[in-house]
């Protein structure tokens, strides 16, 4: 941990000048070391800063430990701090010894700082109330925290309320660099045993944690903390949350959706849930009614063909697979046909210049093992599918005439 880094000493400096100490090619990019460390390197679950160095675009910053060339072990200074090189990935070569003006992508930095600070408050409060530890933290499109104990949604909503109260009180965020002796007497949250300089971050009394990330200067700057979901994860839970502008964008997006739904359903936004439930109930009733009508339709058709023997081919429009199967099943039980093929037409398509159709099929028989003939039948109708010896189902691509011919040739 580099106490002298600009992002610790003067955290709200957005631009600075730095001399290029080295520049080496790496694939089609260049790795640059700077005299001033103002860009935050990836670490502690927080992504690296982006920005520009002169005209070069900075896409990544990584901390690389310096190792002893003989033993291969990581080297440390007299205080126990790992000796590192901070490598900035840029899109063009920079001149060693020259000073460049550096600009941090501030919107991105602040987004990360807000999310990171909000994460501290939530983790600190969970630890205080339930004793669970933050054992994994990730920031990308959405931020996640893994806790080593179970939390219910209701418990998390209480934590969210308390965390937002800390935000509203706009408490100061302080950083402390205690020496080894002082550190012994401080009760702080930390993921691992630490050596060298330790930086503690105090989030307005809601959390005290060893951390290398960037933070806001007062809790009010976090803006808002919104927990999105909780799922069981490795014996504990994984919590998704948004802070600041991310929470606002999320709210705006969801509100737009709610307004669209409210227009579609012609009800007030507060009545959307009830209206959706009512629509689902109506849809369920309609499905039941359609099933009843279909049942009568199958019965009528079967009655018409009750004395039919041989291979029965029935072509239907607009039936889904479940309906095709029920229809075939009905014919099997109520006709004398040896084999029954029920075909539902999908969209018409052109195949090899001829007008052909896409079909879903169900073929059944109580006397013939239809599974045995599935391969031959599929070859005849550009189809695929299979199933049990009493019933197979699949799809075919051919004309109706070809379909009828294949049924008679294969199953007669
Ligand atoms: Zn932090």
Given the structure, what is the number of helices? 9
Major beta sheet, strand line-up: 1-2-5-4-3-6
CA radius of gyration is 34 Å
- Shape descriptor reads elongated
N-to-C CA distance: 81 Å
Percent range for β-strand residues = 25-35%
Task: Sum up the structure in keywords.
412 residues; alpha+beta; Elongation Factor Tu (Ef-tu), domain 3; Threonyl-tRNA Synthetase, Chain A, domain 2; Diaminopimelate Epimerase, Chain A, domain 1; 3 domains; six-stranded antiparallel β-barrel; five-stranded mixed β-sheet; binds zinc ion
Question: Quick gist of this model?
Answer:
The chain is 33% helix and 31% strand. With 412 residues, it is an alpha+beta fold.
What does it look like?
A hairpin with a 2-residue loop joins β15 (339-351) and β16 (354-364). By secondary structure, the chain is an alpha+beta fold. α2 (106-130) crosses α3 and α6 (272-304) runs parallel beside α7. The radius of gyration is 34 Å and the shape is elongated. The chain has 3 domains: 6-104, Elongation Factor Tu (Ef-tu), domain 3 (Beta Barrel); 109-255, Threonyl-tRNA Synthetase, Chain A, domain 2; 299-411, Diaminopimelate Epimerase, Chain A, domain 1. The longest helix has 33 residues, at 272-304. The chain has helices at 6-9, 106-130, 153-168, 180-184, 244-265, 272-304, 321-334, 374-380, 400-411; strands spanning 15-26, 29-34, 51-53, 56-65, 84-90, 99-104, 134-139, 143-147, 173-176, 200-203, 208-210, 225-233, 236-243, 311-317, 339-351, 354-364, 384-387, 391-398. The chain has a 6-stranded antiparallel barrel with strand order 1-2-5-4-3-6. 33% of the residues lie in helices and 31% in strands. Zinc ion binds at residues 116, 120, 201, 211, 213, 215.
């Amino acid at each position: 941990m580099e106490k002298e880094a600009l992002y610790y000493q003067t955290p709200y400096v957005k631009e600075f000048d730095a001399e290029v100490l080295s520049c080496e090619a790496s694939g089609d990019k260049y790795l640059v070391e700077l005299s001033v460390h103002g860009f935050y390197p990836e670490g502690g679950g927080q992504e690296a800063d982006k920005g520009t160095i002169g005209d070069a675009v900075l896409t990544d910053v990584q901390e690389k430990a310096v190792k002893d060339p003989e033993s291969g072990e990581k080297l440390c200074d007299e205080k126990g701090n790992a000796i590192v090189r901070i490598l900035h990935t840029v899109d063009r070569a920079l001149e060693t010894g020259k000073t460049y003006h550096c600009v941090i992508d501030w919107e991105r930095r602040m987004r990360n700082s807000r999310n990171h600070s909000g994460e501290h408050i939530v983790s600190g409060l969970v630890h205080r109330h339930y004793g669970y530890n933050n054992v994994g933290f990730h920031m990308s499109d959405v931020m996640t925290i893994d806790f080593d104990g179970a939390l219910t949604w209701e418990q998390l909503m209480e934590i969210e309320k308390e965390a937002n109260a800390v935000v509203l009180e706009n408490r100061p965020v302080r950083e402390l660099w205690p020496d080894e002796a002082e550190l012994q007497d401080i009760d702080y949250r930390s993921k691992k045993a630490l050596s060298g300089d330790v930086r503690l971050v105090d989030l307005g009394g809601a959390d005290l944690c060893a951390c290398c990330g960037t933070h806001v200067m007062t809790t009010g700057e976090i803006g808002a903390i919104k927990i999105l979901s909780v799922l069981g994860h490795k014996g504990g839970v994984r919590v998704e949350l948004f802070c600041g502008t991310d929470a606002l964008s999320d709210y705006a997006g969801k509100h737009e959706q709610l307004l669209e739904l409210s227009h579609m359903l012609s009800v007030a936004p507060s009545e959307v849930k009830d209206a959706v439930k009512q629509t689902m109930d109506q849809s369920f009733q309609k499905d039941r009614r359609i099933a009843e009508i279909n049942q009568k339709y199958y019965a009528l058709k079967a009655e018409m063909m009750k004395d039919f023997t041989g291979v029965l081919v029935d072509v239907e429009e607009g039936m889904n697979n479940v309906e095709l199967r029920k229809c075939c099943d009905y014919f099997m039980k109520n006709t004398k046909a040896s084999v029954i093929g029920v075909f539902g037409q999908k969209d018409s398509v052109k195949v090899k210049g001829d007008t052909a159709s896409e079909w879903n099929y169900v073929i059944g028989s109580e006397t013939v093992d239809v599974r045995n003939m599935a391969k031959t039948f599929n070859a005849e109708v550009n189809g695929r599918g299979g199933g049990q010896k009493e019933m197979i189902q699949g799809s075919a691509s051919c004309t109706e005439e070809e379909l009828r011919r294949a049924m008679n040739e294969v199953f007669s």
